[in-house]
Amino acid sequence: MKFNLKVYCEKTRLKDIRDFVEEKLKPHTDDELIINQLVLAVDEICANLIIHSNSCNPAEEINLQVRVDTNGVTFKITDKGKQFNFKDYKEPSIQEVVETKKKGGIGLLLVKRIMDRVEFSSKEQSNTCILYKQFSK
Amino acid sequence: MINIEITKEDEISIITVAGDVDASSSIHLDEALTKLVKESSVKLIMIDGTQLDYISSAGLGVFMSYIDDFKTNNIKMVLFGLSKKVQNVFEILGLDQLLNIVADKKEAKEKLYEIQS
User: Fold this and answer.
1) Residue B23: phi, psi to the nearest 5?
2) What SUPFAM superfamilies does this protein's entry cite (chain A) (predicted)?
3) Predicted confidence band at A105 (pLDDT cuts at 50, 70, 90)?
4) Which of A15, A73, A133, A135 sits between 20 and 30 A of B77, alpha carbons compared?
5) What is the mean pLDDT of chain B?
């Protein structure tokens, strides 16, 4: 099953994204914790894209594709904002985050802990993030 | 949607957080905590999470950013009433080990006085 959602780059749209993901996952798993973790992973990526790649510009948009079956789920998130270089991402330690009192920086850490696969790529001014998680049997 | 209310019971300040704490709403939680930290009389804080439906890294980041300030100002904070899915988000990064998280208000009160003494 494949579903698509297009949202404008406003932080207030994150709730729509979460509701959409939850609705599409519910028929495939009744594990509330897993659903919330997957919703969280997509929310974190979309928040980063809206805030950092597209500077909360409502004229810009991000596209979310959810492909789900009994084995697992793949999220494909695309935008045309500033490219994110995943190779340069240095995972912060929790201690570091506490000491620097930075309120951001742990979103991607959560995503990496939750998902089985996290990929970023850019081609012709279009950026794609792929997240994959296998459902446990 | 987020709704934040600050109340007081004896010397304990209680922040009740209802709804979703995400990248768009975490600022309100941050403001509530800043307000309490600025009041020198506030030493005991309870976060009532019984109506908290969702938290993202933005909300976790707010709590984490006060850990040092709390130590410096001798402020004790306990979170209670988190649903399983919200508590799980704290556990993914091991934040349940850095913050005081208990089941209910009664335990939260006991924990506050225990860590104060």
Assistant:
1) -60, -25
2) ATPase domain of HSP90 chaperone/DNA topoisomerase II/histidine kinase (SSF55874)
3) confident
4) A15
5) 95
Contact between B61 and A106 using a beta-carbon 8 Å cutoff: yes
CATH architecture of structural domain A2-134: 2-Layer Sandwich (3.30)
B23-44: per-residue pLDDT in tens? 999 999 999 999 999 998 999 9
Q: Where are the domains of chain A?
A: 2-134
Q: Which of B94, B64, B47, B89 is nearest to A18 (CA)?
A: B89
Minimal-distance CA residue of chain A relative to B60: A103
Tell me what pLDDT residue B116 has. 67
Q: What is the mean pLDDT of chain A?
A: 93
Interface of A with B in 66-85 (CB under 8 A): none
Q: Is B9:B42 a contact under the CB 8 Å cutoff?
A: no
Q: Which domains does chain B have, with CATH numbers?
A: 2-116 (3.30.750.24)
What's the CA dihedral at A107, A80, B24, A40 to 10 degrees? -40
Residue A87 has phi, psi (to 5 degrees) of: -65, -30
